[in-house]
């Protein structure tokens, strides 16, 4: 988590994973009981959807806030011709592992989700499956403002816990564990939930075109309780 100083454990493959991309998927948390049997193909298919939603052009650059071991950036790499795929994460172990797995990605250790370099710009800013770990809406707003400043073309906030399905989400995740296991696993991992209107209001219609959709990753059981935000700049004078 962004507010944690403890590194993630650095697991060792037991030989059951066929590719480093699959291991990166596990490292980024998609092997938990509540995630379902998500595959790298599912993520690559979703990356294809994302590329279309944000109007990705050949040679565009991407920066991911909270990239983990680089799983989603690698999925983008599989479907788009990018001049630069970069990301940052608080976990040194995840970044070092991602660098080993995907040397073509520019992976950086971050001090926090708001520590974007204000002098650096990318065509597309994205954050996947990170916002539910933030401790407040105020902090989430700061992160989004930083992403908007750094984004030339689009900002995507993906896999966001939907406030309208909060009770169903908690019930679903609890049902995946034996008695007492859920409380033990999540006692220090509360999820932050967001309303869709709250997200939309952060992107003024004078500058942004916003599309919010239900999460659509195949085989991902949390999809029923998550949504995706795609915000694309419409201001023709932003880069002039």
The structure class reads alpha/beta
Spatial strand arrangement across the major sheet: 3-2-1-4-5-7-6
Q: What series of H and E elements makes up the topology?
A: HHEHEHEEHEHHHEE
The CATH first-level class comes to Alpha Beta
CATH architecture tag: 3-Layer(aba) Sandwich
How many DSSP-defined strands? 7
Number of helices: 8
Quickly list its features.
240 residues; Rossmann fold; seven-stranded mixed sheet; 8 helices
What do these coordinates show?
- With 240 residues, this protein is α/β, with parallel strands linked by helices.
- It has one domain: Vaccinia Virus protein VP39 (Rossmann fold), CATH 3.40.50.
- The protein has helices at 20-27, 40-53, 71-79, 92-101, 137-150, 166-175, 181-186, 196-201; strands at residues 61-65, 84-89, 106-109, 122-128, 151-161, 208-214, 226-233.
- A 7-stranded mixed sheet has the order 3-2-1-4-5-7-6.
- It is globular, with a radius of gyration of 17 Å.
- The model is unreliable at 1-17 (pLDDT under 50).
